[in-house]
TrEMBL record:
Pfam families: Pep_deformylase (PF01327). GO terms for biological process: translation. This is Peptide deformylase. It catalyses: N-terminal N-formyl-L-methionyl-[peptide] + H2O = N-terminal L-methionyl-[peptide] + formate. It comes from the Bacteria. SUPFAM superfamilies: Peptide deformylase. Its EC number is 3.5.1.88. Keywords: Hydrolase, Iron, Metal-binding, Protein biosynthesis. Fe cation binds at residues 117, 160, 164. The keyword Metal-binding applies.
């Protein structure tokens, strides 16, 4: 198994746009979790942490990221890792298997600078409308079902990753005619 506990994911492992695996909906992970799937998850989380460490990122040429889905390293598995500080300065860490959005707010938000992606080697300008609040049902590393409420920046990160698991890339959600136009008849504001 490639992504075992001794393996360090680098940019050469990251699947880029154009590869059909990024356009496929991923398959659910079997429960209880195999040791292999847990090790893959730990590798993915470690990439995110390494990429945010300036010395490590420079040494291993890692592009900084806040989330990583399994299909971004070529695995057809419904799982993602995320690690980031939100707009209030709170640290979030998620390692979620078979995540599903079970409900969401009507109100929406967007990042004023748009979104980026480790699988997209270019800047795609435009606003990406996301739900302001979501409830996600998933399984954690201990095979427990968890219900997570997310809002603001953390809701954006989770929606970006769950989109990956459904074969969707962030720019699919940017208005084609005017990338900086926002959906009408819905409350939508910038996160910051
Ligand atoms: Zn992405």
């Amino acid at each position: 198994m490639k992504f075992d506990s001794n393996y360090m994911i680098t940019m050469k492992d990251i699947i880029r746009e154009g590869d059909p695996i990024l356009r496929e909906a991923t398959k659910e992970v079997a429960l209880p979790l195999s040791e292999e799937d847990k090790e893959i998850m730990n590798c993915m989380l470690q990439y995110i942490k390494n990429s945010q460490n300036p010395e490590r990122a420079k040494k291993y040429q890692l592009r900084p990221g806040v989330g990583l889905s399994a299909n971004q390293i070529g695995l057809n598995k419904r799982m993602f890792a995320a690690y980031f500080t939100d707009e209030k300065g709170e640290l979030h860490e998620y390692t979620l298997f078979n995540p599903k959005i079970i409900s969401h707010s009507v109100s929406m938000i967007y990042l004023p600078d748009g979104e980026g992606c480790l699988s997209v080697d270019r800047t795609v300008p435009g606003f990406v409308p996301r739900y302001e609040r979501i409830k996600v049902k998933a399984f954690n590393m201990d095979n427990e079902e968890v219900l997570i409420k997310l809002k603001g920046y953390s809701a954006i990160v989770a929606q970006h990753e769950i989109d990956h698991l459904n074969g969707i890339l962030f720019y699919d959600r940017i208005n084609k005619d005017n990338p900086f136009s926002l959906p009408e008849n819905v409350s939508i504001k910038s996160v910051y």
